[in-house]
Design brief:
Length: about 375
Amino acid sequence: MIIKAGLVGLPNVGKSTFFNALTHSNALAENYAFCTIDPNIAIMEVEDKRMQKLISVDNPKNVVKDKIEIIDIAGLVEGASTGEGLGNKFLANIREVDIIIHIIRGFENGNIEYNNNDSNLIKNKEIIDCELQLKDIESIKNRIDKIAKNTKNGDNNALKELDILTRFQQYLSSSRNIRSLNLDDEEVKIARNLQLLTYKPIIYICNINDFNVISSAVIEFTDYIKSENEDVFLLPIKNGQDIEELTPEERELFHNDYSTWQERIEKLTLAIYKKLNIITFFTSGSDETRAWHIPEGTIASKAAGSIHTDFEKNFIKAEIINIDDYYKAKKNNEKVKIRMEGKEYIMKDGDIAIFRVGQNKQK
């Protein structure tokens, strides 16, 4: 399944511009609220430096990078949880994503108005927090009403669920997000079943003017986000879009800015994978070099099944190669060291795998 990342934020923070930069799209990006109504959806190819190593030694006919679906969701305004602006549409779209990328405007521009004319970054972040919390409280209340009859009849499962829902409700009412709770397996199951918005993992991006110009307000915001144990990236989004649109020749003239932008986007991708507990393994040879993402802790037979369901059913063995050893051996024309692993082998990030299926070796 492809990873789905949703871009959220107040109006005029740079969501659609960032969407265009990541996906090389041409979504409308204007300096007024709600220029995005229906979500823009496009695919971002994941840049992974490890793949470049494989390509350099295997010279494959075909290269398939991993992909993330980026969803540019309509801007949120205060009162969205009760339907203000495009609130209901916005909140419904968030339910469909795996991870939220919350964009905060951290630059001054006289031609672009702040939402509610407020330039306080932390306050603007908390507006969206509050709307998501209120929507989760509503979802929990609806669930409590639904199981009320069973709790009155003494149903133990319903009573246990009520206890968890009440805890969630109290936590949200104190302006905190469910993702910051230490949940047990049963609580995780309930949070997922209800598709609680504040349970979804989140990454913050502060949209700045320039890589080298960081205001005191941005520094304060960054420290605040880090105090919540969340990831925050500082990106000049408009510059990034301009850089992505350069020709290869032009990129040479802006080499430092392009390299810095690419490096931060790659770190953002790694942060997304880490938040979702996802790792990457590779298949590589003269025909094709390809990246595959799987949940951390996936066993070899299940990893084979991500390539084709028959591979899992007919799994025999996996040939596993450390990517650094593979690159070094290939580069020096040495023999590649291969380990034979069974179906219960737990795949590691960066493994190169060749799966033996039935009587044939399949890549």
